[in-house]
Amino acid sequence: MTESALRDPASGPSARAAGVSGASAGGSGLPGGVAVSRLRVYDWSASDGLRGGSPHLHTASTEAYVVLAGRGRVETLSSGGIELTQLAPGTVAWFTPGTVHRLINDDGELDILTVMSNAGLPEAGDAVLTFPMDVLADPSAYERHATLPTGGSKADVADAARARRDLALEGFAALRERAASDLGAVLDELYSASAKLVAHRAGDWELLVESGPAAQLHGTERQLAALADGLPGILAQSAITAISQQPEQRYGMCGMLTVWDVG
């Protein structure tokens, strides 16, 4: 999508006076520019005897969990240190960018609806796995370990996902150990390495945000201005959209993902 395609044709001075907005005024996708997916957390045992996914952080997006079934925990490393949050059906938990999170599947049944801000960014490389620091410092090595094979059997992909998880756990264990005595230095090093890994993507991310969450925010601002003038604004464009989940699950960082392509 070109930059010109992202501009709202009804954003000029006459938009408020007319009380109308173009079709793109509300932005694309779900409310708030979020993305949703269903996550069946891995039940693979790790070297510490716990079952679960790959610890990682998001560099620009907030993530929320709505627990559908099963019981477990999310272990986090953030400016608040190391924390464990219990997860059970009905729990809603969320965390901000920079929060390292590891899902632990205590009963083997942990099933979560995830809600991500900035739809499109996580899929475009917003997440950074907690590989050992020498891997994080080498973009080519990071890419090699983070990327799952596109060919081969399902067993091959599962083996690669498990190896990726285990390498992230190795790095996370080192971070936890160091954080116990010098949390600030550990986070500074981790965040600096993560920022360098994603720096080349930031320009494209700006376009994704502008066409999604930012467009929805600006559309709401224009609608409120129209309503303040007693005008209906975008109400005449009322509509409903419904989509089905994609039929195939895929290997995610923390488990098997079922996604909805909201466009």
Task: Give the H and E element order.
Answer: HHEEEEEEEEEHHHHHEE
Helical stretch tally: 7
Query: pLDDT below 50 for ≥5 consecutive residues: which ranges?
Result: 1-25
Strand order of the largest sheet: 6-3-8-1-11-10
The radius of gyration computed from the alpha-carbon positions, rounded to a whole number of angstroms, is 21 Å
CATH topology: Jelly Rolls
What spatial form do the alpha-carbon principal axes imply? globular
CATH superfamily: Jelly Rolls
How many β-strand stretches? Answer: 11
Percent of residues in helices comes to 25-40%
Average pLDDT taken over every residue: 88
**How much of the polypeptide forms β-strand, as a percent range?**
15-25%
Largest sheet: 6 strands, antiparallel
Number of structurally distinct domains: 1
Question: What topology does this entry show?
Answer:
Layout: H1 3-6, H2 13-18, E1 35-41, E2 56-58, E3 63-69, E4 72-78, E5 81-87, E6 92-95, E7 100-105, E8 111-116, E9 127-129, H3 133-136, H4 139-146, H5 154-198, H6 202-211, H7 213-228, E10 250-251, E11 255-259
Antiparallel strand pairs: 1-8, 1-11, 2-9, 3-6, 3-8, 4-5, 4-7, 10-11
Helix pairs in contact: 6-7
